[in-house]
Amino acid sequence: MNSRFYLPRKLHTDEKNYSEVDALDTALYVVVLAEPGAGKTRLLESLATQLNTQKYSATTFLHRAINDHSIPLVIDGFDELAKIDSSGIYKLLGKVSELQPTKVIISSRSSEWDESYTLAFADFFGIKPNILRIFAFDQDEQQKLFEDYLPDENFERFRTQVSQFN
Known about the structure:
Structural class: alpha/beta
Order of helices and strands: EEHEHEHEHHEHEHH
Strand content: 15-25%
Radius of gyration: 18 Å
Distance between the termini: 27 Å
Shape: elongated
C-alpha cells in the first residue's frame, strides 16, 4: 500500500458536478459534506496543497493563535466541533472573518450540517457558501484503490465474491 496514493475527488451540488480544481474556482466560501470515511480529510489536504496553505482541524483552529491574514483557510472536521460546542460555528466563523481570508473551505459530516449553519455563514460573510458533496468512488476508482492497497490480489475475483453476498 502506498500511503501517499490519492485519487482526485469529484464533487457535486444538485445542479452541477465539479472536479477538485473546479471546486476551488466555484466560490470564495465552500462547505464540503460527506459521510464518515468518505474522504473529507484527504480531500481537504489535497485542496490545501493546491491552495498552498495549511489544513487545520476545526478544534485546533479555534484554539490556536493564527495571525496570517488574507490567505486561504482550509478547515476540516466542523462536525467534531459541533458535537463539543453548539455555538462552535459562530466562534469558528467569527475567528475566520477576523483573518479576512481569500477563500474558506470547511468540511463536515452531512448529518451535522444544517441550514442554520449555512445562514450563519451568510451572516458573517454576506453570502451563503457553496455546499458541495463528495461523490462515492466509481468502480474504476474502487479498483485503483484496491490495487494500491492489495497489489497482489485480483480485484475482479474480489468484486465477484462480494457481489455474491449482496
